[in-house]
């Protein structure tokens, strides 16, 4: 029928676009991880910024991989997800990796803020001195919190399994997800709480850094001095602000994804999925451009990649 044709066209378009975004994002984050790992082998150590980027690249790479596989199977072969505990594991791992991505991103923003911002507050000075020692603990805390969210998600979906295992036919996987969304709203509340706290951390860090930059620039103009660090300060500020804008849109998409979870084929749901798949790759590309070592390596290998593609 015409309705079935429209659904098939929608699914085909969604799979094509999201596959392109997912594999592009995986390539970009794999590049970050590989460059940092090579530097780790060469130097035998990593600085705090590299540690955060390594965790962020890994969580985004595997997050895109698992989320794409989950989306692909739910559209193309939904019955494969009914085998217990396949669906539960997918939801749990996705929750863990998504929260890890958001929290490690927030850690990166906090790290930049403390490292670059200049305040005379004694507590802030203490944080600036101790931040390098705090980074491993921040990363560990982010992963532990994400793991807790993943375990909670597994338990909730496992309980919901008994309400949906009898569903059959095309779209049954989607209907099963709808039942879980309706009966297990607390899971969305827990996930939303994690998203909101990380978003607040990013917002607060961006505002502090913006205020520090404004005050620093004002002092330089007042004293008629030129500060060589101003360009670096502004460059990082641009990166933070671009991340803040993208993080804000991503947070909005996460909320809309929950609201429109019961409306398959909705244009709003499709747009939120498109942005959520684009976010890990686009933001990681911004981080590459803002990092001299990563940018130099990328520019060095791009001609080689282009040559290989042309040869094919």
TrEMBL record:
GO terms for molecular function: bitter taste receptor activity; G protein-coupled receptor activity. It is a multi-pass membrane protein. It holds the Pfam family TAS2R. GO terms for cellular component: membrane. SUPFAM superfamilies: Family A G protein-coupled receptor-like. Keywords: G-protein coupled receptor, Membrane, Receptor, Sensory transduction, Taste, Transducer, Transmembrane, Transmembrane helix. This is Taste receptor type 2. Its main location: membrane. The chain crosses the membrane at residues 12-41, 53-76, 96-114, 135-156, 188-211, 240-262, 268-290. Belongs to the G-protein coupled receptor T2R family. InterPro entries: TAS2R. It is found in: Membrane.
């Amino acid at each position: 029928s015409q309705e079935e044709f429209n659904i098939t066209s929608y699914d085909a378009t969604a799979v094509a676009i999201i596959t392109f975004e997912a594999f592009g994002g995986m390539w970009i984050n794999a590049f970050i991880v590989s460059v940092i790992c090579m530097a780790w082998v060469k130097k035998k150590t990593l600085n705090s910024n590299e540690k955060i980027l390594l965790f962020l690249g890994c969580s985004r790479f595997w997050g895109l991989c698992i989320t794409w596989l989950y989306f692909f199977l739910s559209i193309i072969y939904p019955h494969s997800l009914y085998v217990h505990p396949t669906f539960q594991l997918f939801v749990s791992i996705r929750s863990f990796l998504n929260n890890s991505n958001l929290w490690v991103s927030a850690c990166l923003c906090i790290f930049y803020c403390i490292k670059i911002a200049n305040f005379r507050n004694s507590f802030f000075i203490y944080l600036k001195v101790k931040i390098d020692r705090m980074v491993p603990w921040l990363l560990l805390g982010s992963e532990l919190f994400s793991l807790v969210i993943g375990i909670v998600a597994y338990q909730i979906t496992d309980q919901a399994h008994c309400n949906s295992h009898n569903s059959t036919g095309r779209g049954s996987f989607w209907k099963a997800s709808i039942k879980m969304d309706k009966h297990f709203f607390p899971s969305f509340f827990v996930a939303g709480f994690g998203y909101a706290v990380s978003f607040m951390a990013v917002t607060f860090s961006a505002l502090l850094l913006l205020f520090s930059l404004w005050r620093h620039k004002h002092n330089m103009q007042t004293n008629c001095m030129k500060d060589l660090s101003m360009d670096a300060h502004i460059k990082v500020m641009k990166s933070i602000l671009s991340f803040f804008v993208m993080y804000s849109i991503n947070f909005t998409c996460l909320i809309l994804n929950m609201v429109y979870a019961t409306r398959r084929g909705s244009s709003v749901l499709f747009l939120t999925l498109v942005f959520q798949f684009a976010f890990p790759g686009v933001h990681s590309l911004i981080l590459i451009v803002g990092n001299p070592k990563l940018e130099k390596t990328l520019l060095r290998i791009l001609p080689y990649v282009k040559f290989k593609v042309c040869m094919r």
